Amino acid sequence: MVDNIGSQAKAVEQPVFRGIRDIYQQVLVLQDKTIIAVPEDGNVIPISLMNIPCRDESLEKDKGNPIYLGIAETQLCLCCENSRGQPILKLEERDIMELYRTQKAEKSFVFYRNETGNISTFESAAYPGWFICSAVEKGKPITITKDVGRDNTAFYFDLRD
């Protein structure tokens, strides 16, 4: 399968499926409509994330590869929105392919993916300087932070078959 995250977004038939875990070897699971980081073991079924490029050419070029992120086998996509004057990360029911087909980006759903070796970070396009993060404590929700030095923003984002 071709990885569709390159800076030159081409027409794609479907999203790429990836496994995701943080640097503490916690995998992500879906609990109700919340993504939780839990220790990787045989008793949990981690989510696969779908990702597909954002085709809006007007987005900043130096931030990373703009992508949409969704949870496989659901109609749930990750987005950032304002809550009491601060951005929050949430899941919203949307078709990731519908987001992809839209020429103008819905910035609340766009994340800039940056890679250093096999580690990825995901910065919100709607809230520059805010990154998807996990807590060191097990069983905590995935959130968004601007305190990159204190909170974990590094993830392994591996292709799934």
Explain the overall architecture.
The chain has one helix and 13 strands. It has 161 residues and is mainly beta. The chain has one domain (16-159): Trefoil (Acidic Fibroblast Growth Factor, subunit A) (Trefoil), CATH 2.80.10.50. A six-stranded antiparallel beta barrel has the order 1-4-5-8-9-13. The chain is globular and about 40 Å long. The N and C termini lie close together (8 Å). Mean pLDDT is 90; it is low at 1-9.
User: Mean of the pLDDT scores?
Assistant: 90
* Discrete helix count: 1
Name the CATH class: Mainly Beta
* Number of DSSP-assigned strands: 13
Oligomerization category of the chains in this entry: single chain
CATH topology: Trefoil (Acidic Fibroblast Growth Factor, subunit A)
Report the sheet with the most strands, covering strand number, pairing sense and barrel closure: 6 strands, antiparallel, barrel
Which bin fits the share of residues in helices? Answer: under 10%
Beta-strand content estimate: over 45%
Strand order of the largest sheet: 1-4-5-8-9-13
Distance between the termini: 8 Å
Q: Work out the count of structural domains.
A: 1
Radius of gyration: 15 Å
CATH architecture: Trefoil
User: Order of SSEs, N→C?
Assistant: EEEEEEEHEEEEEE
Note poorly predicted spans.
1-9
**Structural class of the secondary structure composition?**
mainly beta
- Sum up the overall morphology in one term: globular
GO cellular component, one term: extracellular space
Main location: secreted
Pfam family, one: IL1
Keywords: Secreted
